Amino acid sequence: MKIAMFDTHGYDRESFARANERFKREITYFEPRLQRSTAKLAEGHEVVCAFVNDRADAETLHTLAAGGTRLLALRSAGYNHVDLEAAAKLGIEVVRVPAYSPYAVAEHAVALVLALNRKIHRASARVREWNFSLEGLVGFDLHGKTVGIIGTGKIGQVAAGIFKGFGCRVLAYDLYPNAAFAESAGIEYVPLEVLYGSSDIVTLHAPLTPETYHMVDKGALASMKKTAFLINTSRGALIDSRALVRALKHGELAAAGLDVYEEEAGIFFQDLSNKMLEDDVLARLLSFPNVLITSHQAFMTAEALGNIADVTLENVRAFEHGELLVNAVRAESVLRASMGAKPTA
Q1: CA angle at residue 182 from 180 to 188, to 5 degrees?
Q2: Interval 137-188: pLDDT, tens
Q3: 278 is catalytic
């Protein structure tokens, strides 16, 4: 089966080339993101492989289907950028990579905390100018602090373990609390408002759904400690970015570490160093000395990239042979989730 892969970079080509030594698929790599204007590039390819900032809306999917696409293989866990109902009507199956490396993302979240707390980014820039002053670089011990983890899937569980290793008290919130995990890990599930009000660090590890969109809004930020850190390595739209700017501007939050941003499409994964940044909200966030932003790189480890390639190509192989698609995402599973039942895919 011919695969059209969109939004590709050198690291994607390298990881898929290694994995493809076993699968022997014909892969066409496209640098542009998948969207309405680029979907026709996939004509003649039965499989389209998309990433997080591609846009598989109804019009894009219609173009793909007309060109012969029968499988949309996401090389990501999230699928909020896909119109699943349109895909089902067009007979396009959608598969994903539900877990590539929870360690990669969880470790990056902790790295953001450490860098912000100990002012590593500011200290590094300072000493490069031969300024070895320690003024303004005071941090705090993580030991004994309270960390609130929102979402205790695989990534959230790994993050909890790391913070427990630092000697932190860990609170958690999840629509589906895992009692066995809580007991074994020594964490405590609490209502969301309790987590916000009690945590020195709030870190987000939840999927983006209609229910979680802007869950960290003006009210949530106001309920957090003024000394709290907010960390997001999940999905940008979990946070109302304009509300975050206001909270930081008025000293209602101590710091923010973001690996994702709700309007990152067309910005992240690109070199814009010779262009003007047109997103005023992102520019404002970048102006704060207590904000650290990375460009959706939490997944970027050799292990994670290898797992993404392996699982994606295995999904394609299973589809070609008519086998059960264990990583399928379908509209009915999302509907069940929004109605309060656990999704089956």
Answers
A1: 150
A2: 999 999 999 999 999 999 999 999 999 999 999 999 999 999 999 999 999 9
A3: no
